[in-house]
Amino acid sequence: MATSSASKLRQLLADEKKITVCPGEYDGLTARIALNAEFEALYMTGAGTTASRLGQPDLGIITLNEMRETAEMIACLDPSTPVIAGADTGFGGSLMVYRTTTEYIRAGVASLHLEDQPTSKRCGHLRNKQLGGKNEYLSRIKEAANARKLSGGDIVLIVRTDSLATLGYDEAISRLKEAIMLGPDVAFLEGITSKDQAKQI
């Protein structure tokens, strides 16, 4: 039986002696370039996908369907190469987070990440980001973990916080620790500014 893309990604992440470089892509052409360069995993960027599909900045205007369709297309180019795909804030309330997780699993996506911004989010690299409430964020994470459990499939869940720039390191770490206790696999601190900070996290 073929190994799932989520299982392959878990194997890559489990190797503590190795860094897995995942180039960002946003359409079939950029994915083909990365595949031809023999990267072991790919990362579908929400900002790039929004710019490519809509010609707009990443300001929370792309929909679940547009993101899932792009992620599914990229994942199907080479099912043996895991694809991580941004899922913004889950595209709505808890029911939408459940739906998003389930649809990404069905699309063959190996992993998704969920952010702690409000639904009207901004790209993590832009200024003037806002943060959603911690309870809302944790509710999203619970719903994603529940969807994975009930789906019959698998997906690597990444919890992301954009709080470093506004709330500082300690609060960002606190958010990630609370989120990871709910069942996700990977913690992602957005906006690291130095090599020392990367080692610290």
Walkthrough of the structure:
- With 201 residues, this protein is α/β, with parallel strands linked by helices.
- The chain has a single domain (5-116, 126-200), classed as Phosphoenolpyruvate-binding domains (TIM Barrel), CATH 3.20.20.
- Helix content is 47%, strand content 11%.
- α2 links the parallel β1 (24-25) and β2 (42-44).
- The longest helix has 18 residues, at 134-151.
- It is globular and about 40 Å long.
- The model has no long low-confidence stretch (mean pLDDT 89).
List the helices and strands and how they pair.
Elements: H1 5-14, E1 24-25, H2 28-36, E2 42-44, H3 46-54, H4 64-77, E3 83-86, H5 94-106, E4 111-114, H6 134-151, E5 156-161, H7 164-167, H8 169-180, E6 186-189, H9 195-200
Helix pairs in contact: 5-6, 6-8
Please give a handful of descriptors for the protein shown:
201 residues; alpha/beta; TIM Barrel; 6-stranded parallel beta sheet; 9 helices; globular
The rounded Rg comes to: 16 Å
Topology-level CATH name: TIM Barrel
> What's the overall average pLDDT, rounded?
89
What sequence of helices (H) and strands (E) makes up the elements? HEHEHHEHEHEHHEH
At the first level of CATH, the class is Alpha Beta
At CATH level 2, the architecture is: Alpha-Beta Barrel
Number of helices: 9
Instruction: Give the low-confidence spans.
Output: none
Q: Terminal Cα separation, in Å?
A: 37 Å
Percent in strands: 5-15%
Structural class: alpha/beta
**Structurally, how many domains make up the residues?**
1
Describe the strand arrangement of the main beta sheet, using strand numbers: 1-2-3-4-5-6
Can you say what the CATH homologous superfamily is?
Phosphoenolpyruvate-binding domains
